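ok so for the tutorial part 2 we go from a plain amino acid sequence to predicted structure tokens. step 1 is just haveing the sequence, like this:
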Amino acid sequence: MNEHLSPEDISRWFAGERSPELERHAGECDECSAQLDHMESTLAEFRGSAYGWSAAQPASAPRIAWRPPVRHTAQRWVLAVASMFILVSASAYWHSRQQTRAAEMARADALLVQVDTEISRAVPQTMEPLVDLVTWGPGPTDESQKKEMR
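step 2 — the prediction. this is what the tokens look like for a chain of 150 residues:
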């Protein structure tokens, strides 16, 4: 190995993946050996400060359980209520439209019955009093028509 250790090689070294070639180069090259020693002392300092910090924390500190923020819970409730309102409003609107349509159909049926009644009369309603005044006798029969024709 002619070159110095790359950052990937150093990462592998501290991860425990030390190939014989890496170990040989780290033992022979003073610059790479110094870099590995510096990194190792930095990691040891960090490890020590993490242990020191955790030891300084009181043991009676309450454990914090994660809960969703109130804002998100409130937003969910608002969305649920809005959805229910939309569903109820839509069904009420549909029901009122059905009732309006049924009332219109009933009026149209009543008008058709009225028109049918007016059309089926033999004499218009305004002339009915005249029809009551006139008595109609039996109309000419076929026999009387035959006599007149002879």
